[in-house]
């Protein structure tokens, strides 16, 4: 598996696969064809269908001067997030490259093996990690430390996550885009309206934190993929909430991110963290699983409790579709991050109470199931905005005109 730095990427929202990945592809192309002074970029599949709402064309034009971006809705490609870049020196064609944006800001270039990121971890499944820990008398945190020194980077990650929460809670107004969605983090946090179910401030805070980060993402702010931009609100919300409640130290937070990172890495390596490839179960499902593992670790769970928390959280997101309305990472994405945070905490609590040794379903089994489920979801429900909420929203809107 790859470094946790590949999972927790720092970059601008709103979408790791639709902005961070294409930007990286454009930079690689620009470096390879440094004499090009004109570019044509073709977007295919989900990049074409939701590229406008996800700001794909905007970020490419920001990266490549004198660039024409073409949206190709018809051509079928190997990967749902494909882009092809052509470079020219005036009228002379210099070359072209095809890239796949595979999720979490990672890309693969067709036929270019050298872009593949170096693997850092030898073990690629939770089972293999468990066996390794047992043989070497290690825990998950020392396991990560034995492969990479990442504390300083994770410190930076935490700083960005928490500033997203603070900034998001301080803002009001409308998010960019034609949906005119109002920011709600501040309202949820400060709302004085009477509670229907006793004291619900704890839950409201947790949701408000997730809203704050996701709203920062939706407005193009600097965020951390955890594991993607679309799902970047879940883990920071859990972290900030537990920090307030249990005074978690920076060291504990860094270690918690290592534990959550291993969970995200296993999903990313063996299945997918791309909504266009496997639906939202791969994005918010994985984020919820990572956050549940984080919470189980902070709440002093053992290795099996951590596995169980991650497994419960992902299992109950199986089948979750990706159908962003008008292609914006706003509906259902922002609200879904808030619900993901609540579910992550519930999964951790459940995993700490039930006998984790009796689990019949392992984390690896759920990961495999998530991939199979994702592959059998129709294309219309995988970040194309052709089905689900996106389709019905459009139909109702068109009818009411
Ligand atoms: S529905 Fe989920 S996977 Fe799709 S764009 Fe929104 S957060 Fe990402």
How many distinct beta strands?
7
Helix content: 40-55%
What is the CATH class designation of the largest domain? Mainly Alpha
Order of neighbouring strands in the sheet with most strands: 3-2-4-5-6
Task: Name the features.
17 helices; binds iron/sulfur cluster; 2-methylcitrate dehydratase PrpD; 11% strand; 401 residues; 2 domains; 7 strands; two-stranded antiparallel ribbon
Structure description:
The protein is of the alpha+beta class and 401 residues long. The protein folds into two domains: 4-115, D-3-phosphoglycerate dehydrogenase, domain 3 (60s Ribosomal Protein L30, Chain: A, 2-Layer Sandwich), CATH 3.30.1330; 128-399, 2-methylcitrate dehydratase PrpD. The chain has helices at residues 4-7, 16-32, 45-49, 56-63, 126-136, 140-147, 151-169, 185-190, 201-218, 234-246, 250-270, 275-278, 284-298, 303-315, 333-353, 363-376, 388-399; strands spanning 10-12, 38-44, 67-72, 81-89, 92-103, 106-109, 222-224. The strands form two sheets. A five-stranded mixed β-sheet has the order 3-2-4-5-6. β5 and β6 (106-109) form a beta hairpin. α14 (303-315) crosses α15 and α14 runs parallel beside α16. The termini are far apart. The mean pLDDT is 95. Iron/sulfur cluster is lined by residues 230-231, 275, 280, 283-284, 322, 324, 329, 332-333, 336, 383.
């Amino acid at each position: 598996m790859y470094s946790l730095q590949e999972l927790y990427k720092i970059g601008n929202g709103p979408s790791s696969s639709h902005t961070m990945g294409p930007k990286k592809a454009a930079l690689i192309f620009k470096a390879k064809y440094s004499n090009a002074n004109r570019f044509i970029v073709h977007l295919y599949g989900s990049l074409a269908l939701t590229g406008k709402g996800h700001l794909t064309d905007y970020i490419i034009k920001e990266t490549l001067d004198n660039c024409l971006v073409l949206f190709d809705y018809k051509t079928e490609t190997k990967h749902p997030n494909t882009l092809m870049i052509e470079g020219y020196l005036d009228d002379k064609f210099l070359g072209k490259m095809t890239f796949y944006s595979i999720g979490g800001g990672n890309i693969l270039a067709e036929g270019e093996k050298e872009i593949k990121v170096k693997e850092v971890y030898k073990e690629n499944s939770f089972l293999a990690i468990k066996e390794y820990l047992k043989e070497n008398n290690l825990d998950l945190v020392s396991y990560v430390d034995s492969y990479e020194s990442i504390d300083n980077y994770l410190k930076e990650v935490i700083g960005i996550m928490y500033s997203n929460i603070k900034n998001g809670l301080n803002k009001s107004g409308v998010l960019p885009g034609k949906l005119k969605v109002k920011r709600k983090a501040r309202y949820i946090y400060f709302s004085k309206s009477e509670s229907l179910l006793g004291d619900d401030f704890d839950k409201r805070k947790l949701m408000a934190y997730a809203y704050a980060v996701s709203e920062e993402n939706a407005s193009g702010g600097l965020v951390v993929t955890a594991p993607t931009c679309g799902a970047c609100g879940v883990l920071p919300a859990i972290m900030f909430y537990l920090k307030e409640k249990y005074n978690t130290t920076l060291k504990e937070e860094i270690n918690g991110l290592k534990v959550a990172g291993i969970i995200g890495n296993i999903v990313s390596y063996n299945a997918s963290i791309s909504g266009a490839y496997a639906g939202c179960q791969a994005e918010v499902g994985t984020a919820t699983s990572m956050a549940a593992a984080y919470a189980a670790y902070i709440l002093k769970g053992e290795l099996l409790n951590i596995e169980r928390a991650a497994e419960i959280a992902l299992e109950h997101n199986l089948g979750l579709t990706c159908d962003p309305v008008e292609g914006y990472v706003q509906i259902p994405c922002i609200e879904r991050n808030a619900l993901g945070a609540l579910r992550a905490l519930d999964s951790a609590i459940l995993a700490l109470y039930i006998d984790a040794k009796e689990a019949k379903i392992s984390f690896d089994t759920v990961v495999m199931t998530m991939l199979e489920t994702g592959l059998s979801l129709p294309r219309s429900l995988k970040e194309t905005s052709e089905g689900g909420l996106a389709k019905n929203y459009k139909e109702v809107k068109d009818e009411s005109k």
